[in-house]
Protein 1
Amino acid sequence: MKLIRYGPPGDERPGLIDSGGRIRSLEGVLDDIGGESLLPASLERLRTFNPSDLSVVEEGVRLGACVGNVGKFVCVGLNYLDHADETGVAVPEEPILFMKATSAISGPNDDVVLPRGAAKADWEVELGVVIGAPAKYVNEDMARQHIAGFCIVNDISERAFQMEHGGQWVKGKSFDTSGPIGPWMVTTDEIPEPQDLKLWLEVDGYRHQESSTSSMIFGVDTIVSYVSQFMSLQSGDIIATGTPSGVGYGYDPQIWLQPGNVMRLGVEGLGVQRQQVLGAPH
């Protein structure tokens, strides 16, 4: 299944994508896509519905973040060999974890509004993991049973905030609109091998990132298991699994996002995002 949320910001409604690519409403079936609706039993119940029996949603409606009321937005840093190399750091021996504020989450095609003082805004296409069954102290061979599905994440970063202001990376990772997710969450039955998905990102039509999740240092099962050793994962939590090379930080000279730029990015089987970059509000 491809599960979505559509409608104005703050008033998104649940839906799914049918075999013809149309949005079908899940109003009256679910309150939202998130939390308990992502438990295995809830997803199995959804599969009993015939999409043709659900009402069609008008074309052109805004798509919101594909998961609502996210409790935790966990990220993995430097998880592709080529990205670690371009940043000039050693390959990590264990996953590098950091958090992104949930207030950063936005829709897959919403504008990205640079924060005040932004000087080094950067892009990062990533495979996102959406937790279904809660996970705590999970073994790798059981990790997949705790995943509801996958989505695209653009882990937009302000590198000056991240690296030049002391403290943790979270300051450069959490400005509003810096965490587009979606367009939809695809359940695991449609993504049987998450370690073999192509992913890419373009800015103004130029392809900066192009790789495969097969190049991850730590795979999806390892990441879910690893994170669960340090914190419990709840239904609807999101884990962004890292980005490949081709970020603006890795160029010489470095390249940063500017107002007017348009980003397009995709992960195989998970759709495409598009965001226009706007300048900071006065």
Protein 2
Amino acid sequence: MKNKIVIYICVLFLFFFNTGCSWFSSPTPDSEKALQDAWELFGMTNYYMAYTKFESVISMDPDNKEAYIGKGWCSLLMNDLENAEIDLKIALDKGSTSLDPHAGLAAVYISNDEFLQAISKAQYVIANDPEYTFMHEPEINYLDMHLILAMAYFHTGDFQNTYYHILVLDPGIIIDENNSSTWVLNDQQYDSYAEILMAIIDDLDVLYGIL
């Protein structure tokens, strides 16, 4: 009986040793390497391949919040707003504390003309990190959130907050709602304060717009 126990222990030892299963080691799972590869593809702006790789991460690890964030951002940057919203919300539902899904949703909402939702998400990002930067694409940052806020406030008729966020993006833009002589941009005179604000936003969108 004693010999049988010894043999059984030896067999268990060989099984764990040969299969890599062990109570004493923590091997890097395949999903972690796949996630790293996915972000590398994302950084190369190969969003389609990155999207596919993020999907493979999720197939291995269905609760991987980071993969849902990556998948959502890939969809967003490929202008698939519906799937972007779905995946970014899933990341939050699964407990992500990152600001990245909130920033992505702000971009989704402004693109869908859901202005109040866009304001809520962009404000949340800036309130939690006034110098927010998307780590995997540093050109996407707090300036984009201010642009989204300028756009959203404009479309809700709140020109005071529109101008505030324009000034964050370019403090050199000086216009006065009550002085039509200041309604000039690139040597073009505009007929109303709303028109000059919209022209400025369009100009800034070229510099800072995500989509």
